[in-house]
Design brief:
The protein is of the alpha/beta class. The chain folds into two domains: about 100 residues, Beta-Lactamase (2-Layer Sandwich), CATH 3.30.450; about 260 residues, P-loop containing nucleotide triphosphate hydrolases (Rossmann fold, 3-Layer(aba) Sandwich), CATH 3.40.50. It is built from twelve helices and 15 strands. Helix 8 packs across helix 10. The termini are far apart.
Length: about 375
């Protein structure tokens, strides 16, 4: 058997044209549009690089080696590859015929250093007060979804929030391709496996979810909800497994619930739609919405509490606890904004108190100001 270190170095030799960008800490993503066009993302902005692969065949060979490294297949019959590189970077590659101009690749890079909540506060992604509120929600076993668009920082936020899980809890993580690096000691990492060339031996997210329920998890963390596993997560959230966390693609908090509903319907749904909606609204407690702003910066834009499903209007009832208010554009084109409490105290405040945590003082001060202005 080839030693792991030798295999990794051989793989990186195939990636030599982009090696400098994989080693560059300022690069957050490498995008390969065929062998002759390679972009990188720095500080949220795209840059065309002079790097090139020798040919389509050289790029294809590099991707096949990436597939071999993660034990997957990548060819014309299986033209989509999801995997990771030795440093943990996530790779998504498309092969002809679905990518007619040659293999198209996106490599999402992650901080080698642990990205903590305090570092996110330092970057201006959220405030100390908002971090205190999120700490209270996670510690008190609220079910939290981190939602946002592509490249908005969902995985980084979920990693950071994991530091708020109390010591002594057993956390089971389920992912398609391993990306999460939870900041806890007792973590069980599970990873789905695609079927072989004959369609055998595949292990899906849903398979792992069912197995997880018998592994005595205190918390279940799903790296990203993409399909029918949404129903499994909703049912786990409402059946005694509090403190579940996950990410999904959605632009606004209200979109988060409708997308989760749609994905739950991808499963073998055996319940009326209204029953699903009621259960979903009961399952999800808090939505942490993240976004990449116009200037490329990544920010938390909403911390929203889910209340219930209103059967009269057929809508989910929600209330924002913190929102980001844009105040203008700076001299360098940067978006100026503030992340402030709305003055609404969440309905789940008693559960926070039962766990010995509380919201920051600014939430209650904003509530008094809101009442003085006649909003309550």
């Amino acid at each position: 058997m080839i030693p792991k270190e030798v295999f990794e170095e051989t793989l990186l030799q195939f990636l030599a044209p982009i090696r400098q960008y994989l080693d560059d800490p300022t690069v957050s993503e490498v995008m390969i549009n065929g062998p002759d066009q390679i972009y990188v993302e720095r500080r949220g902005q795209l840059e065309l690089t002079p790097a090139k692969f020798a040919s389509k065949e050289a790029l294809a060979a590099a991707m096949r080696n990436c597939a071999q490294y993660v034990g997957k297949y990548f060819d014309e019959q299986r033209p989509i590859l999801e995997g990771r590189l030795p440093d943990g970077s996530r790779i998504e590659a498309l092969f002809p015929p679905v990518a007619p101009d040659g293999p198209s690749v996106s490599i999402r890079r992650f901080f080698k250093e642990t990205l903590t909540v305090q570092r996110l506060v330092g970057f201006g992604a959220l405030t100390e007060d908002a971090a205190t509120a999120l700490h209270a929600f996670v510690a008190s076993k609220m079910n939290v979804l981190v939602a946002g668009g592509t490249g908005s920082g969902k995985t980084s936020m979920l990693n950071a929030l994991s530091s708020y899980i109390p010591d002594g809890e057993r956390v089971v993580v389920i992912e398609d391709s391993r990306e999460l690096q939870l900041q806890r000691a007792h973590v069980v990492q599970l990873e789905a496996r695609p079927a072989d060339s004959k369609g055998r031996y595949g292990v899906t997210i849903r398979d792992l979810f069912r197995a997880t329920l018998r592994m005595r998890p205190d918390r279940i963390v799903v790296g990203e909800i993409r399909g029918g596993e949404a129903l499994d997560l909703i049912q786990a959230m409402t059946s005694g497994h509090g403190g579940c966390m996950s990410t999904l693609h959605a632009t606004y908090p209200r979109d988060t619930l409708t997308r989760l509903e749609t994905m739950a319907m991808m499963s073998d749904l055996g319940m009326p739609l209204v029953a699903l909606r009621i259960q979903l609204a009961s399952a999800v407690n808090i939505i942490c919405q993240v976004s990449r702003l116009q200037d490329g910066s990544r920010k938390v834009t909403h911390i929203t509490e889910v209340l219930d499903f209103d059967m009269v209007t057929s809508t989910y009832r929600m209330q924002d606890i913190f929102v980001r208010q844009t105040t203008g554009v700076g001299a360098q084109g940067e978006v100026l904004s503030e992340f402030v409490p709305t003055g609404i105290v969440p309905r789940c405040i008693e559960q926070l108190h039962e766990h010995g945590v509380d919201l920051p003082r600014c939430v209650y001060e904003a509530q008094k100001m809101r009442a003085a202005q006649g909003y309550d």
